Amino acid sequence: MYRAIDSFPRWRSYFYFITLIFFLAWLVKNVFIAVIIETFAEIRVQFQQMWGSRSSTTSTATTQMFHEDAAGGWQLVAVDVNKPQGRAPACLQKMMRSSVFHMFILSMVAVDVIVAASNYYKGENFKRQYDEFYLAEVAFTVLFDLEALLKIWCLGFTGYISSSLHKFESLLVVGTTLHIYPDLYHSQFTYFQVLRVVRLIKISPALEDFVYKIFGPGKKLGSLVVFTASLLIVMSAISLQMFCFVEELDRFTTFPRAFMSMFQILTQEGWVDVMDQTLNAVGHMWAPVVAIYFILYHLFATLILLSLFVAVILDNLELDEDLKKLKQLKQSEANADTKEKLPLRLRIFEKFPNRPQMVKISKLPSDFTVPKIRESFMKQFIDRQQQDTSCLLRRLPSASSSSCDHSKRSAIEENKYIDQKLRKSVFSIRARNLLEKETAINKILRACTRQRMLSGSFEGQPAKERSILSVQHHIRQERRSLRHGSNSQRISRGKSLETLTQDHSNTVRYRNAQREDSEIKMIQEKKEQAEMKRKVQEEELRENHPYFDKPLFIVGREHRFRNFCRVVVRARFNASKTDPVTGAVKNTKYHQLYDLLGLVTYLDWVMIIVTICSCISMMFESPFRRVMHAPTLQIAEYVFVIFMSIELNLKIMADGLFFTPTAVIRDFGGVMDIFIYLVSLIFLCWMPQNVPAKSGAQLLMVLRCLRPLRIFKLVPQMRKVVRELFSGFKEIFLVSILLLTLMLVFASFGVQLFAGKLAKCNDPHIISREDCHGIFRINVSVSKNLNLKLRPGEKKPGFWVPRVWANPRNFNFDNVGNAMLALFEVLSLKGWVEVRDVIIHRVGPIHGIYIHVFVFLGCMIGLTLFVGVVIANFNENKGTALLTVDQRRWEDLKSRLKIAQPLHLPPRPDNDGFRAKMYDITQHPFFKRTIAVLVLAQSVLLSVKWDAADPVTVPLATMSVVFTFIFVLEVTMKIIAMSPSGFWQSRRNRYDLLVTSLGVIWVILHFALLNAYTYMMGACVIVFRFFSICGKHVTLKMLLLTVVVSMYKSFFIIVGMFLLLLCYAFAGVVLFGTVKYGENINRHANFSSAGKAITVLFRIVTGEDWNKIMHDCMVQPPFCTPDNSTYWKTDCGNYAGALMYFCSFYVIIAYIMLNLLVAIIVENFSLFYSTEEDQLLSYNDLRHFQIIWNMVDDKREGVIPTFRVKFLLRLLRGRLEVDLDKDKLLFKHMCYEMERLHNGGDVTFHDVLSMLSYRSVDIRKSLQLEELLAREQLEYTIEEEVAKQTIRMWLKKCLKRIRAKQQQSCSIIHSLRESQQQELSRFLNPPSIETTQPSEDMNAVNQENSAQPETSSQQQLLSPTLSDRGGYRQDSADAGKPQRKFGQWRLPSAPKPISHSVSSVNLRFGGRSTMKSVVCKMNPMSDAASCGSEVKKWWTRQLTVESDESGEDLLDI
After folding, report:
1. Helix 925-940 / helix 953-984 crossing angle, nearest 10 deg
2. What are the backbone angles phi and psi of residue 64, rounded to the nearest 5°?
3. Are 969 and 975 in contact (CB under 8 A)?
4. Which helix (H) or strand (E) holds 995?
5. What share of the chain has pLDDT > 70, as a percent?
6. How many CB atoms are closer than 10 A to CB 603?
7. Is the pLDDT of residue 453 over 50?
8. What residues contact residue 4 under an 8 Å CB cut-off, 6+ apart?
9. In this predicted model, what pLDDT tens digit does every residue of 64-99 receive, in sequence order?
10. Distances in Å between the alpha carbon of 1056 and those of 596, 717, 1068?
11. For residue 522, what are the contacts with CB-CB under 8 A and spacing of at least 6?
12. What phi and psi, each to the nearest 5 degrees, are found at residue 66?
């Protein structure tokens, strides 16, 4: 990058390399980790039997043995191996089992570790064999040997050796005993001495459980370690055979060298040097093959192998499904207990005596003095009228249901509005009747549902694959029926023994589920009670303590000034418009901008802008342009302090400082605000002119650099990031302890083996220290690749330097502190190759094992453990760590549905014209694949450099022009096929149109100018075109969505990283702004300004030579020029400051913040990566729903009216299909749910999709506690309302039937009378009167009337919903039909003539009734009996689905 900065414009180099690192190193590389984690989890589920199920932590001190019982049988009996089995006295056995003895041993281990860590190098002539550290080691070894002998004496050898912990202790005893032998002291046996620190893990139970959780199930982790070692051995052997014959290449001459080279590639440190040396040695012919070999090995080792370690660690941290559910309940109970307690700053008022507020009552006629009464007591009488009014409106006439006592009712009677309230009491009787009816209907519904589910009504139906909606609906109905049923009713069905056994198991299962329901409801009630108790406590404190909730104990609670401050502090932008009828929030055109403006209050927006302006002003500060001497920079300082003073005063007056419920200082964010304000105020008032190095004034300037952290407090999403990161810091702390323990073990070992042995004379010709004196000449090389031809007798340029016997510049092992620092740098995989080479060259090749073992443990296990724990901690703080598999799939489904959008694809033209043919061509898969191949072919043109001076560039540009015209033709065909408006609906089409337009502009400029800028523009157009191919393939689209959604969700994390980087950049300018140039501090990388400091810190984030930059900033005299007056006049560094500065920055950014990106990518990848078996709604289901939605939403507005939902549901097929023959009740529930939730208004794409998703899952398994309760309550309400609606429609239909039949009966009587009159008239006047026949028109009318019931019986409409008004329209249409009045039937005014014979009557009734039955229906008693039987039969058919549903029964559907 630095070379590119020197050769090209600065902005181009920064933009290219920063985006490259961000996308490839931080996003795309972490996608591999996500892929491995998800794949490993899937494989673990499939092969769980291979590794066995997880088991909880069990004590290793207990075992089970077979013992013969009294009856002669055998049984397993638990045996405690710690039970005394030795021959020691009882007092010693009791002492050995006591906790005092164990704590004494652990304290001795801690003292031994401290003594070993205090060892250091004392000089060459010091005799190390018999120093005080050796004597201390002998004493501790004897002590621990006696401890082991005592345990063997008390437990017996068999009881002692049976414990794995005792085995480890015995190994340490043998090893340390051999280590104190003088000839073996400071040898490889030192490992046994330093491994004693592992015994300290027993001090902390949390640390012990964490270690067991990670390393306890060692089968997976151990297998992976063995696989890694085997891979290294195999690849080393292959490389040895491939490159051992290559001359001038010493990296693969022997197997150990080949192993070290392949291990170096595995750790990514200097692997390019290994590859470059091999490529130069093998020659140009085999260089591509060798490069591919090393690159594939590097990608496999870094992207797959290391990700496997993360996956295994995350799998070990995963909990069992049952344990997750249990922890969810426990966490809910803990949250309820936490909400019940007030903060300590508020509970302090309970320590003071109560002083309730009193009021004085005046205007009372009395001769004696009226005492003061509590204000709250008087409020009860003021609000009595409103309470009694609501009580009367809610009560029922029965005495048991009334919640008001006699005194309240008597008080109401004296109210002046008593007449109006008594009139309303009439409606309570009606409410009581409605309540009784509702209860009876509910009982009938439950009984019929139970009968439907327990009967074998589905056995005779044809076997058809049911949809997931139908399956889940019947599961819920069965669950409800089994909960409300009884065992006696089931047994009386006369089923087989197998069926009864299955019913019994179902009953037990659902009883357990009912018990879980009671626990969930109990927790919910506990939460509500906790909130109520907390409110009661606050009200009691507010009443009994006059200074409670008073800002600064001065401003009153309801003072006007405080109310004004509250209005100013809490004012925010709110542009959400609600529908006055439905109450739904309307989506505005610029709702995203409005949401951003309403993110924080106006006051916080002002302070965000002021803070950003102040940070911009600090960017212009440098050691040579200081704020103390620049008046223009002081303006921003004054503005920031003044605005922050106003802000804090307003917030303190509105919410209080500390002793109020919503105080400013109620969390760490408030403390940080006050701290930043005080630092800024002190610095502004002081404004020191001279700031010495390492002084209090310089420390104040460093603390002033924390100002950008104010953004964390002002933005809620930034606070959420900090809370998710640090709220559960326990696991990260435990991992840090484990890594420090590992470093301490290897540091102590390194001090005892390498102390003083790494020093060497700077003159390579001097071997011994005695000869290292005087001066020698060192040559200066201008360049490594530049070979200067010297004349005879001419020497290379150089200068004379003194000889010095010293350690390597950046590390040594002379004491534990320096050794820990060196190992920390090695742990970051930076500079470990240099440490390895120095140890091998100066101590011996055998000691190279030391650094390789540490790198393997620290890199493969330590760092991956850090990554896994950060991911697990992030998931736990977000609440996803305790989710079961079904709950996690449900959360993924909800997130995936939020991203899903309606298809922006217009329908195919109706006719078969030119547009329709174009539509078929553009939508054909072959056409899409051809376009994708053309995009790839155009991208291949960039494999050759486009240089204006190169003649090859012109043909390449010409081919790109041809491709551009092809893409113009593609866009034109799509616009013709879809129309311009339809083409513009798709975002992908808009992107293609934009790129194609840029391509056309490039073609015009290319032929007009033909220079380097047009070639660069053409290359950019090809790159933009290449990104369009990601949306043409499902897998590429999935990965692209993962990256895009991860960028969106990690926006605030990236902003937080930048704010931290900005703080460190400002502090680096103050601490290291004038440090002299060194090995890595140069004109490109330095801290002279905030901009360059940001560049250096961004480089450190990538881990590139951060340790060398740190050592350059540690430079001390005599290698620099000190100045005690001001820090900007010296070029020395700060040793302690650099150590804390760089180590803390690297740990926070590289180990924590970057791993949060991994956690977010893993979380988002699970949204899109799932097999068809794991998905609750698959990709095909969503695609099918999008197609059906496009058919219903013809206007492409994204919303449809509620009444269209029923047509959409009827069109669904596949797994989302709703079969009306089987699931008519489910169809009603779904339609009514849409109408209930949206009040009959418009519904969106996501509303219907969300309803289908809830209906397609088992809510008992997939939903969490609070969401489950809310959903079950909603479905129960919908079920009850649909049942009421169905009964209401059925009753109306029955009334219509009765009216129609009685009207027909009356018409028959009237026709008989007319026929009798005609016969009588014919009899009286036979010759003169002619017999009239019914006219053809009348016969046609009669035929139509007789055919009408048959046609109506074939109609099967949709199920009744709130939007159906058919029943009410029929009521209005039947207004002219006969009605019953005062027990009689009113005849129609103009009756129609009918046929004379009885056969015509039978035809009118469809051939199913006789004259006798018709006449019998005229009797009211027979009408009631037949109506009751019809009610019973209809209800059975509706709820048991046992009969073939006739058309008359479906009239209301």
Report:
1. 140
2. -125, 140
3. no
4. helix 987-1008
5. 71
6. 20
7. no
8. 12, 13, 16, 17
9. 554 444 444 444 445 554 455 677 888 888 888 888
10. 18, 10, 18
11. none
12. -80, 130
- Closest-CA residue to 147 (of 191, 199, 198): 199
- Note the pTM of the prediction, 2 decimals: 0.74
Other residues' Cβ atoms within 10 Å of the Cβ of residue 478: 17
When pLDDT is averaged across residues 312-328 and rounded to a whole number, the result is 74
CB atoms within 10 A of CB 124: 9
Asked whether 117 and 196 are in contact (CB, 8 A), the reply is no
What are the φ and ψ backbone dihedral angles of 1174, each rounded to 5 degrees?
Answer: -80, -25
Measured CA to CA, the distance from residue 1092 to residue 778 in angstroms comes to 33
d(CA 1052, CA 1060): 12
Q: What is the DSSP letter of 56?
A: -
| Cα four-point dihedral sign 575, 580, 584, 589 | negative
Count of positions (residues) in the chain? 1453
Q: Where are the alpha helices (DSSP H) in 900-952?
A: 914-922, 925-940
Token pair recorded at residue 686: 């002081």
Q: How far is residue 512's CA from residue 507's CA, in Å, rounded to a whole number?
A: 9
Helix, strand, or coil here: 690? coil
Average pLDDT for 1252-1266: 83
Give the Cα separation of 100 and 106 in Å (integer): 10
The whole-angstrom separation of Cα 1186 and Cα 899 is 13
The tokens describing 516, both together, are 């879980």
The identity of residue 641, as a single letter, is V
Q: Is the Cα torsion angle 812, 818, 819, 821 positive or negative in sign?
A: negative
Residue 893 class from Cβ within 10 Å (0-12 exposed, 13-18 middle, 19+ buried)?
buried
**Element at 802 (helix H, strand E):** strand 798-802
3-class secondary structure for 498-565?
Answer: HHHHHHHHHHHHHHHHHHHHHHHHHHHHHHHHHHHHHHHHHHHHHHHCCCCCCHHHCCCCCCHHHHHH
- Pair of tokens at residue 852: 């390789």
Helices (H) and strands (E) in the chain, counts: 61, 14
Is the Cβ–Cβ distance between 598 and 574 less than 8 Å?
yes
Give the torsion sign (CA, 602, 608, 611, 615).
negative
Q: Are 1265 and 328 in contact (CB under 8 A)?
A: yes
Q: Say how far apart CA 888 and CA 1167 lie, in whole Å.
A: 10
